[in-house]
């Protein structure tokens, strides 16, 4: 067993605190990774607070992990000791269902769906006759820790041109926006609307622009309208009816990155005929739409869930090729609870990334 330490919450109402635990030694197909950086995702906050109603405690978040390979199992061929690698939202899947065999593990239809990097299987209620879930684990601990052990198939290669700390958010925020942009065919000449200008919205705008699209950001914060200028994209204050009217029936694709329940109906009339609005920021029940608005132009409202391992490697390589990185602020692990509060209060314009050396300084004397 590997002695490990991280930060975890024991209840929905508790803060994150130091939590010593043990990781299993790498199996023949697994990689042991020393965690160097870990992004802070808004979904970490939802999960810690049990806002989706499925949290397993203790909950140790972190699914935007960049680290260095420390050891490998005897069957590992894709990675070697010393490699800089990444781990995103998933660390396993059933490998047998149609989505898995088609390279879309993020839609795994196995007994427990895919195994999340933290908080255990996506569907923990389905268990085998011996009472264990499909993966033999009732919980998993994420990257707010000094070490992770992951099957090699779910470990990504970090391009050398990407700064390690800035690569971390690409593993979730990057692929979560890249996947729908690619799936729905955004290309040069497309007009793309991005709802929300946080960590996901920032990456979505940069990726769509690199694909050659015309990008318009919609935000509820007037200050961010001005900030969008640094990305060389247009921004509209979402409460400005005149501003919305100017974009009526003009978008080929709209991506909502808003992280909580919100009324998206005012944006439906902005879609061209046959164009979709895809929602990636919120995973709860949303306000209903007026089907007349949708039917009159044969529009679609849909969802997209993170991205596959293949897409995650693709977005890492795409970002390296186009020199795309998220705006980040490095923080020590000791500031994580304050960072959560600032994210919830909308006080940040960037993605927090934890420098895991700070964990070493606290526990390794």
Description:
This protein is α/β, with parallel strands linked by helices. 44% of the residues are buried. The protein is built from eleven helices and 17 strands. It has two domains: 2-172 and 307-363, Quinone Oxidoreductase, Chain A, domain 1 (Alpha-Beta Complex), CATH 3.90.180; 174-303, NAD(P)-binding Rossmann-like Domain (Rossmann fold), CATH 3.40.50.720. Strands 3, 4, 5, 8, 9, 16 and 17 form a seven-stranded mixed β-sheet that branches. It has a six-stranded parallel β-sheet with strand order 12-11-10-13-14-15. A two-stranded antiparallel ribbon has the order 1-2.
Task: List the main descriptive attributes of the protein structure presented here.
single chain, 365 residues, alpha/beta, Quinone Oxidoreductase, Chain A, domain 1, Rossmann fold, 2 domains, six-stranded parallel sheet, 17 strands
């Amino acid at each position: 067993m590997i002695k490990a330490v991280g930060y975890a919450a024991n209840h929905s109402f508790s803060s994150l605190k130091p939590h010593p635990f043990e990781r299993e030694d790498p199996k023949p197909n697994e990689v042991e990774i020393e965690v160097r950086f870990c992004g802070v995702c808004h979904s970490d906050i939802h999960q810690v607070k049990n806002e989706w109603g499925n949290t397993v405690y203790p909950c140790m978040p972190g699914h935007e992990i960049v680290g260095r390979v420390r050891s490998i199992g005897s069957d590992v061929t894709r990675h070697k000791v010393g490699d800089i690698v990444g781990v995103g939202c998933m660390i396993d899947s059933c490998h047998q269902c149609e989505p898995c065999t088609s390279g879309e593990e993020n839609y795994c239809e196995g007994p427990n769906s895919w195994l999340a990097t933290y908080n255990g299987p996506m569907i923990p209620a389905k268990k085998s006759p011996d009472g264990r879930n499909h993966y033999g684990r009732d919980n998993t601990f994420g990257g707010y820790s000094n070490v992770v052990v992951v099957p090699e198939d779910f470990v990504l290669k970090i391009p050398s041109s990407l700064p390690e700390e800035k690569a971390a958010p690409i593993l979730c925020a990057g692929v979560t926006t890249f996947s729908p942009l690619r799936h729905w065919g955004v290309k040069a000449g497309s007009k793309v609307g991005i709802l929300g200008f946080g960590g996901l919205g920032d990456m979505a705008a940069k990726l769509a622009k690199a694909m050659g699209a015309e990008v318009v950001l919609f935000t509820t914060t007037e200050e961010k309208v001005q900030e969008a200028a640094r990305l060389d994209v247009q921004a509209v204050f979402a409460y400005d009816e005149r501003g919305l009217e100017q974009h009526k029936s003009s978008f080929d694709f709209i991506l909502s990155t808003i992280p909580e329940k919100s009324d998206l109906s005012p944006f439906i009339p902005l879609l061209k005929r046959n164009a979709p609005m895809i929602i990636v920021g919120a995973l709860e029940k949303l306000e209903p739409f007026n089907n007349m608005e949708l039917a009159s132009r044969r529009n679609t409202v849909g969802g997209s869930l993170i991205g596959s391992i293949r897409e995650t490697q693709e977005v890492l390589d795409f970002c390296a090729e186009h020199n795309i990185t998220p705006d980040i602020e490095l923080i020590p692990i000791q500031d994580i609870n304050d960072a959560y509060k600032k994210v919830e209060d909308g006080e940040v314009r960037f993605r927090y990334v934890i420098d895991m050396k700070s964990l070493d300084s606290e526990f390794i004397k």
